[in-house]
Amino acid sequence: MRKDIFDTEVSIYNGVRDVYGTTCKLRAFLFDKKHISEVEQLRSLPTKEERNEIKKRLPQACISGVFSPTRKAENLVKHSGFICVDIDRQDNLHIDNWNEVKQGLSKLPQIAYISLSVSGNGYFVILPLRYPDYHKGQFEQLKRDFARMGINIDAACGDVCRMRCLSYDAEPYVNAEAIPYEGYYVEPRSMVNYQYSGNDVLDKVAKCCERIEANGIDITGDYQSWFTIGCALASLGEQGRQFFHVCSSQNQAYNHAESDKKFTNLLRTGKRIGIGSFFEICKDYGITFKNA
After folding, report:
1. Which helix (H) or strand (E) element contains residue 256?
2. Within 13 Å of residue 176, how many CA atoms lie on the same side as its CB?
3. DSSP letters spanning 120-176
4. Which among 72, 74, 136, 192 is least surrounded, fewest beta carbons within 10 Å?
């Protein structure tokens, strides 16, 4: 029997000032009706400041997982497999048929839940993810997919530990059979101009990287290989950075900023691994600097 996806554990907090929280099933949070009167009171208030005072006291949940001891991305114990995105009315004033947004989105098989936000002026949408370990990359593609539908989602929702305020919707959309969202955004690969310098070692590295990029070969495989390649290319100094990006960008988990930060760190602290290690790894994949 398939497990009910809403039975997944998530971290919940007793208001925004609670930093430690507890855990509960996602279902218990989403279908909690004990605070309906407070939500209705909040929606009746004229100013955002007044609404926020109540909002701060309402239960909050990290839809994307369980965190311990405190709510920080680095304290993620287990990803729930879900992502929650906000669709605020204020960010989508171009949408004329606002009342039909929920109905339109409910046709997408990847959406598990749609509800009015606590203010009643927007929606929050929950989707299961195919690659929760790549939360940010999936969010970035999700943002682009929604934009193609003419819907702007809150960019802050890419934060894995973002909190969701408890809300109430008399008619939420619920789909326990939602299929995982598979979209994944990969930053555009930096294009390297393979001009040969006359420096024998650099030219050999350039020829290998040209073949790596032309054939889409991922030689980084696992973290240890990626680290070794980084150290080897860092032995070339700053000139190795562009080649590190070429190698790293063949992997689906490539992130330009993270790779750049890694190379900077390796320039400073990298082990004494020479460029020969790079050529050895290339050889394992049938890549050589020699002319065919």
Report:
1. helix 256-269
2. 10
3. SSEEEEEEEBS-GGGHHHHHHHHHHHHHHTT----GGGG-TT--EE----SS-EE-T
4. 74
Which amino acid, 244? F
Which DSSP category does 22 fall into? E
Distance CA 278, CA 152 (A): 44
Please identify which residue in the block is written with the tokens 């408890």. 166
Complete edge-to-edge strand list for the sheet that includes strand 9-13: 22-25, 9-13, 60-62, 164-165
Instruction: Give the three-state DSSP class for 25.
Output: strand
In the sheet that 173-174 helps form, which strands lie side by side, from edge to edge? 82-88, 122-128, 113-116, 173-174
How confident is the prediction along the chain (292 residues), in pLDDT tens digits per residue?
A: 457 899 999 999 999 999 999 999 999 999 999 999 999 999 999 999 999 999 999 999 999 999 999 999 999 999 999 999 999 999 999 999 998 999 999 999 999 999 999 999 999 999 999 999 999 999 999 999 999 999 999 999 999 999 999 999 999 999 999 999 999 887 666 666 666 667 889 999 999 999 999 999 999 988 899 999 999 999 999 999 999 999 999 988 888 888 988 999 999 886 789 999 999 999 999 999 987 5
